[in-house]
Amino acid sequence: MGFSPRKAAAAAMLSGGGLTVLVGASVGLVVAEAKWARRTIGPPQSVPPTADGLYGEHLAREGERPLRLALLGDSTAAGYGVERPEQTPGALLAQSLVAHTGCPVLFRSEARVGACSEELPGQVDRLLEDGLEHAPQLAAIVIGANDVTHRMPVREAARQLGEAVSRLRAAGCEVVVGTCPDLGTIRPVQPPLRWLARHWSRQLALLQGAAVTAAGGSSVPIGALLGPEFAERAELFGPDRFHPSAEGYQTAIAALLPSLASAAWRLSPHTAIGLAALTGE
Is the full-model pTM beyond 0.70? Predict the structure, then answer.
């Protein structure tokens, strides 16, 4: 039996209609899964402990100022979910840099729970409002997860990050950015939403890396480096199964530390004496 043009057209209409139904069903499923994931994760229930202050005070030398370290970004930078100040990413970074440089570190955080990249200008404003003399010499930024969950335009989010890095660099600050984590590892997120979350995360991370490099900063691909480990080890997530646990924050900071320690080397003469003491030079 022949396949006439009319039958071909009818088949195309049926297949097109089927595709429309399939796409519509997929979109509906993604929306339903997103709502379920939000209910499962829930809204923030607490404020992260404050870890601002001077670390390694016993290493201070007369006439020398401590290394000024700042942390910007979202809840991952702020340390949402931990109970004690010493468990926060900021405290972990400050303590690690004290150990690596042999110098005291004055730490300040401007990271905020729920922050998107559009909030980075305000965070930078607060860091620089007291003048260059008090501006950070070294800054770490962790941002991107909320840009993905809120479906912010990825190119705009990357541009905003690049501008923040550029402003800090203009103030004489070394900048290290942990790019967007892999949200495909979040357990309450199920396929197909998980696949989309992973795609969006990777897309943003790539654009962030390019923007950071163009602005004179250094980037660390958190998602690519730690995604597989977080996917396999449930203990790296906190009770809400979205934010890291104390162990998860330690793992993330360990990924950032080499770049931050390398940046500290470039901040001589402030860190030169301490680094020389460590290396015996």
Answer: yes
Q: What is the pLDDT of residues 77-110, one digit of tens each?
A: 999 999 999 999 999 999 999 999 999 999 999 9
- The DSSP symbol for 49 reads P
- Name the residues annotated as catalytic: 75, 240, 243
Give, in order, the Cα–Cα distances in Å from 260 to each of 55, 91, 106, 126, 141.
Answer: 16, 14, 15, 22, 11
- The answer for residues whose C-beta is within 8 angstroms of residue 109's C-beta and 6 or more apart is 50, 51, 52, 70, 71, 72, 77, 78, 88, 90
Question: Which residue, among 106, 100, 114, has the nearest Cα to 41 in the 3D structure?
Answer: 114
Domains of the chain: 53-274 (3.40.50.1110)
Backbone φ and ψ for 37, nearest 5 degrees, come out as -65, -40
Classify 180 as helix, strand or coil: coil
- CA dist 201 to 212, 247, 264, 265, Å? 16, 22, 29, 31
* Out of 17-26, 54-63, 178-187, 230-239, least confident range: 17-26
Give dist(CA 135, CA 220) in Å, integer.
Answer: 23
